[in-house]
């Protein structure tokens, strides 16, 4: 995993073709190919400091502070000691450098770990253990089972028959099923004969390094022959060798040139909208700073002319020219007022985001106990954006659904099985307590298969022929591979979870698929071992939508078994079945209404003679050079007719827990959910209904399925007119212009609508001329489902919304096909633990279950946003207030850039005195707790509307600061004017005044913080009081005799604290300013709450009223729909293994004789655990779907329990 | 279940902190707190304001301008001339006792002691008695670090150079007899300034420490001869010097000159009668529209006279009470709108 997410070293020169000679290092070295050492680290010991500093000073804030530092060393300008800038700057640089250094050390470590892995390399005719980094292109290496593939290899030979090897490619493409690679026979003959291998001098010419994982072209020249090489013969770095004792490979690409490393391009840097706003504000602040400095410079010019010039007796003058003086003053004030652009802002923002990310990692309510997966914030810089999501783009399979297929119902010969009825004939709702069928009669049954209807098992036991044929078909007609580690413990590896579910169902009902060879299938039929001769597999593909096998039974009977989409099968049925067809259709409709995926089964007995003739033609077609596919299809079509219908199966595509509730919650929070799926329209629509996205109550669900640009346009317009009759007919509506980018505004429609668009139409809808039309229509709908969408289109849809909607988008998905969308959206969320790692690796947040999304958004996101906004508002307030006091003072000190405060106070104000309290607020604050956040999803809306922090609220902050600074300057000014201490001595001196103002300021901002904070924990209290205490401690220390005696010039404020803080009028002044600063705030806030309360105020008021823990929200029970919506059967999207199975390349695997070191840890306890889209079985053997009761109390479950106990 | 637990290695800790369930106090601005709070604060403020105002009013202050701007004023001749130690005198009459202890201040206005470069123009190390800074004063003192002949100035810098150098004597005329009012110049500066911040080099006699240096340009006498009457009141720890060096925050300021020695007739303060202040007029302020004045004042627990605080407290206290009434009306009229 360490390879991913790291920066890759770019290749400098493009090579055009790669030439490699095996076992000839000298020749290969002449090309200077990269060795297998990888380097993902950025720095080394010597380059760290200069490089890192260079990078850091590219940031505008740091560069600005460097510039200030330069200004400060010019004595004529310097209005502040250098340390006021240097201390914060060094602190910021150090913290960042430390973070970069640890990151880089980790990279070094992982590089070293990877580079120092050992592998056996053939050197000087001997196998030697070498470090990975010393492997060269052209070396022959030996890999053993479960080893990582060292580099991109050309597979030469393997321990397995037919030179096959099995690899797991999870790290590359996220798919967890095993893949097969096969070596060329000519190299396969080398075997593990070291002498032969050492003599191997084949020469490879191949493509230069690139990042295409699925393609490879090259030519191997060996012994005067040329052999073409393709992807099937290549082992890529990042894969793991499985189920293969050993293999030999020739290194083609090493280290940085491997496809894996070429693929991990720099991930795009995402910024939040607050970041962007902050950048604008910083620019604005710069402008404002320049304005203030100009005002003061002009003031200085006037003052110098009118007053200063006459004052020369006492004041030192460097120059007589007031213009020059005002120029210098300008820069001096740039230094003094620099605190309006606070450097610590950026550091604090990072800390807050980091803290809030940790909360996500730590949240037990987002921890999924079944596969021990906690939520993970992989990006720590986007948290507050989670509180502003307006559009959620979700994948379907594995995200909304579990991608677990469950054999739920079937209809056999016109009789429907699967439902449970009570004695009155009423259909019972299924739950955990419904008693299940006992499969103990079958020792080979899968213990986790659950079925409720006893009548089916009775039918099997009664030897009903149709039922037997039904299950025999399921046991024979598939491309599943079986593995039997121990006698009786079967493990299936299926191309699609549907298949796995069907074969497992057959297994439990007594038709156990045991093993297969290229030409036979052995099954156990009701305890009796039977061997079927496998004569042909008519494999599945997307056009055929069916698959058939032709087998010869032990009795010698020839049969064709076929399963496929109902519509397809129906076309090929014998007319004698028409009555059965009607009944079955009825059942199919019923299944579809329940959202089940259906599959029709049929068979036919074949005539020996006809078959022999057919198989002859089949063989011919199979070896034909031209149009092989077409000819085969024709043959298949010919034999698959006049079938006899057996029945149909219904498979439930199980939704993840809590999906409908989550979607309901999110839509209450005004988040729009778009489902983008590769599935068929019917399937997608069905899932849309079952997860509450589409509802029967909706006014209309529009289906866009046009096949031309005009059709699509017309359909979109029709949809829009029916939603909003007065909407502009033509497409020349006027989108708002915002900085040259069109922004499509939300349009209000009456009623709720849904939109379903298929991939074909989507391609048109995404064209430039139609995209606005599409977006406008789609945005008027409550729910949008796009089906048959390619990964690229997913990204395009996200980009479209990002482009024209000023809204924050989130994409959630689990598979490699969601990566593009996850990367395109503002925030990408990966569902972990379902299907490989690819989506998770490119995501910003990851967790195990879709339902955690509501917690991520409604709780963590909302809080993060709230905290960040509060932080920013307060931070700007405190810094502006601090700075503006200087501005007012300028009018009383001859615009001389005299600071109001002690320089140490200026240095430490942001770093020490006010840092922790505001951090405390930004890490702990919450308006209402998580339960209430769930109960009032509307609380999320202000985030979408950017209400908490915007330019407007920034100006409010600035105005508030302006007021506070006026109070903070003029109250002490007036209070100290011409007054003295109670012993007649001086107190209106500059130092006492500085101390007084800074103490007033600190009190005022601390109290203001107290009013901002709505959640006072002990930590907050400690931080606030501690910071004040710290201020006094530090002040008294700095102003103490000891410090002064050590460094007289650095601590000139000696004694000020003692001499003025013992005066009652000083404290009365502090008290007055503090109260005066917050009184208007409280008044305003109180009146606002009374006159126009926000949603937050209302909920907080309700919480206050409820006092005790609130009554949990009542959860709506899942309504069983009784619609007649027909679901289609979504077979696997990829071509099956059929080709491999029939071609005889398939490995004949003895059941129990494996002696490799690879033991499947979890397999002994689990036999059927589908987890991948294309793999029903997890090679890691982790149980995925075993029900463990009371594993975790999820939030939803918790509500449910409480509801039950409540009256 | 035990097995399950052991497998859950990644399960986050269940602590109040990690689960964000820290116990907390969640105050909200409810009418029950805000309105009574305002009333209470208002009343407290009014109380404090009254006390402050009464105290401030009880303080006696006597201000006498002696800049000599107008022709009729006693010091107008001195203000026009440039003669050193020009003498003039001011008369004033007290009809009642000026309650003691009485402090004698001089005040300057439109004088920018808070000008940045003026304030920076001193050398703390030198004033701390560090001899190495005598010979090479800090560059911050520029242009008053070296004189025209490149000799170091001690004490350097413009604050020291611009030290106030008018002197005053006060006489009391009662029943035809003229008494010199005893003025006490001891301990008029901060204790910390006198004992820690400023120090003479430990060289005896003090004069030797100043060898090779020159006195500030504007000064009549070198630092070690500031007070002929009291040898311990010389050098950097001269009380007048210390008072001057504590620069003022605002362009109008007053500085303590002397205390009326509370002894004999003056035990209770300045008795009624006619007084004369004899001024040695040296300090030029008219060039920059400055003004000089003499202030007699006594003090209270809250320091010198300042009515601002009292008035401010009164005004804000009343505002609070008014606001609380407004809030009450708003609250009673609109209340908290019921949800949905």
From TrEMBL, chain A:
<feature type="transmembrane region" description="Helical">
    <location>
        <begin position="1023"/>
        <end position="1046"/>
    </location>
</feature>
<feature type="domain" description="P-type ATPase N-terminal">
    <location>
        <begin position="20"/>
        <end position="86"/>
    </location>
</feature>
<feature type="binding site">
    <location>
        <position position="817"/>
    </location>
    <ligand>
        <name>ATP</name>
    </ligand>
</feature>
<dbReference type="Pfam" id="PF13246">
    <property type="entry name" value="Cation_ATPase"/>
</dbReference>
<feature type="transmembrane region" description="Helical">
    <location>
        <begin position="323"/>
        <end position="347"/>
    </location>
</feature>
<feature type="binding site">
    <location>
        <position position="540"/>
    </location>
    <ligand>
        <name>ATP</name>
    </ligand>
</feature>
<dbReference type="GO" id="GO:0005802">
    <property type="term" value="C:trans-Golgi network"/>
</dbReference>
<feature type="binding site">
    <location>
        <position position="597"/>
    </location>
    <ligand>
        <name>ATP</name>
    </ligand>
</feature>
<feature type="transmembrane region" description="Helical">
    <location>
        <begin position="993"/>
        <end position="1011"/>
    </location>
</feature>
<dbReference type="GO" id="GO:0140327">
    <property type="term" value="F:flippase activity"/>
</dbReference>
<dbReference type="Pfam" id="PF16212">
    <property type="entry name" value="PhoLip_ATPase_C"/>
</dbReference>
<feature type="compositionally biased region" description="Polar residues">
    <location>
        <begin position="1157"/>
        <end position="1169"/>
    </location>
</feature>
<dbReference type="GO" id="GO:0005548">
    <property type="term" value="F:phospholipid transporter activity"/>
</dbReference>
<dbReference type="InterPro" id="IPR008250">
    <property type="entry name" value="ATPase_P-typ_transduc_dom_A_sf"/>
</dbReference>
<feature type="binding site">
    <location>
        <position position="788"/>
    </location>
    <ligand>
        <name>ATP</name>
    </ligand>
</feature>
<keyword id="KW-0812">Transmembrane</keyword>
<feature type="binding site">
    <location>
        <position position="679"/>
    </location>
    <ligand>
        <name>ATP</name>
    </ligand>
</feature>
<dbReference type="InterPro" id="IPR001757">
    <property type="entry name" value="P_typ_ATPase"/>
</dbReference>
<feature type="binding site">
    <location>
        <position position="794"/>
    </location>
    <ligand>
        <name>ATP</name>
    </ligand>
</feature>
<feature type="binding site">
    <location>
        <position position="814"/>
    </location>
    <ligand>
        <name>Mg(2+)</name>
    </ligand>
</feature>
<dbReference type="GO" id="GO:0045332">
    <property type="term" value="P:phospholipid translocation"/>
</dbReference>
<feature type="binding site">
    <location>
        <position position="395"/>
    </location>
    <ligand>
        <name>Mg(2+)</name>
    </ligand>
</feature>
From TrEMBL, chain B:
<keyword id="KW-0472">Membrane</keyword>
<dbReference type="Pfam" id="PF03381">
    <property type="entry name" value="CDC50"/>
</dbReference>
<feature type="transmembrane region" description="Helical">
    <location>
        <begin position="28"/>
        <end position="54"/>
    </location>
</feature>
<dbReference type="GO" id="GO:0005886">
    <property type="term" value="C:plasma membrane"/>
</dbReference>
<dbReference type="GO" id="GO:0045332">
    <property type="term" value="P:phospholipid translocation"/>
</dbReference>
<protein>
    <recommendedName>
        <fullName>Cell cycle control protein</fullName>
    </recommendedName>
</protein>
<dbReference type="GO" id="GO:0005794">
    <property type="term" value="C:Golgi apparatus"/>
</dbReference>
<dbReference type="GO" id="GO:0005783">
    <property type="term" value="C:endoplasmic reticulum"/>
</dbReference>
<feature type="transmembrane region" description="Helical">
    <location>
        <begin position="311"/>
        <end position="332"/>
    </location>
</feature>
<keyword id="KW-0812">Transmembrane</keyword>
<keyword id="KW-1133">Transmembrane helix</keyword>
<dbReference type="InterPro" id="IPR005045">
    <property type="entry name" value="CDC50/LEM3_fam"/>
</dbReference>
<comment type="similarity">
    <text>Belongs to the CDC50/LEM3 family.</text>
</comment>
